Amino acid sequence: MLVTRWNPWGTNVWGQLNQLQNEVNRIFERYDDGRQEPAAFPPLNLWENENGFQLEAELPGVELADLDITVTGPNQLTLKGQRKALELKNGAAHRQERTFGNFVRTVTLPTAVDPDKVEARLENGILKLQLPKHEDAKPRKITIKS
Length: 146
What we know:
The chain has about 150 residues and is an alpha+beta fold. The chain has a domain at about 45-85 and about 100-135: Immunoglobulin-like. The chain is about 15% helix and about 30% strand. The protein contains 1 helix and 7 strands; from the N terminus they run αβββββββ. The protein has one helix at about 10-30; strands at about 45-50, 50-60, 65-70, 75-85, 100-110, 120-125, 125-130. The strands form 2 sheets. Strands 1-2-7-6 form a 4-stranded antiparallel sheet, with no helix packed on it. A 3-stranded antiparallel sheet has the order 3-4-5, with no helix packed on it.
């Protein structure tokens, strides 16, 4: 004899509630419960050679006058600026995925740099920095006395 549990709502209701819960979970996973931090702006690449560091940052739509680069302390680089929003005179925006407004990005470099020798160029929306290492941060060969 097969014994089954009696369910006053039928077996279909629980399956539908389970499906609804799965769909709601998928919605929250897509938006990461709204707690996802936005990607850092500007996105950048940083690499090192024996003389110093090279940095490239993507800054499309940022004017040179709206950009400020500072080296604070021995190894803190700060990019600060503003990307202005486009002004639509005739028409309506249907999608706006690019962010606008003020931004600040601070990067801690692995070693000290010489702020007086930093070179910066802005070409086609790409900021290129050359950050020479400070003389104290460069490796030195030690002579051995006998």
